[in-house]
Amino acid sequence: MKISFQKRSSDEKKDRRGDHILAVLYGSGVSNTSIKINAKEFDKLFKEAGESSLISLESETDKEKYSVLIHEVQKNPLTRKIIHVDFYQPDLKEEVEVSIPLIFEGIPPAVKELGGTLVKNFSELEVKALPNKLPRDIKINVEVLKTFDDVITIGDLVVPKDVTIMGDLEEIVALVTPVEDVEKELEKPIEEDVSSVKKEVKEKKEEVDED
Fold first, then answer.
1. d(C-alpha 107, C-alpha 140), whole Å
2. What is the residue range of 137's domain?
3. Which of 8, 26, 94, 100 is most deeply buried (CB count within 10 A of its CB)?
4. What pLDDT, in 10s, does the model give residues 112-123?
5. What tens digit of pLDDT does each residue of 14-43 get?
6. Gyration radius (Cα) of the chain, Å
7. 113 and 170 both lie in a single domain
8. Given a cut of 50, is residue 208 above it in pLDDT?
9. Are residues 28 and 43 in the same domain?
């Protein structure tokens, strides 16, 4: 995967013209450099690469080429359009820590047959690996959740041998909860409020009777 770039001028408004996104390049063996990239090209690339795939960042005007990770993406809070990108060139011989998205696949039997609710405690996890060994995502087969006692922990996740998942291996990533338990948790505050009102009414009635 690759994307071309141009070095920025001193005129920010001019640099944004032509559907460009402002960006910065920094990291191992490279000086901080202000650049700009094509917005449509980057949108397509970001959907494919995410933040864990090495990208070839290539100059449109000379032979400069960098192996980078998408380190940070800033969006306009109103339009949600991407307005700035940080590209980081890592040392390819040193491990880096990156958040990897989790992809939950399948339907748990405990949901399909027992009517439970799938609970996902994480949407992404931090991993450590060499830059060229980072996975695009971590796939999790939730069809192993056959009963309400079954759980999937961090230690159960399957990743390449060169990748280390950071965190407690006993921590639960996914499980299926009975619907009644969820409903009880939702109703609990209401029941407590009703009980409290009934108690208050009873106390006031007793005060009136005493008078």
1. 11
2. 96-181
3. 100
4. 999 999 999 999
5. 666 668 999 999 999 999 999 999 999 999
6. 26
7. yes
8. no
9. yes
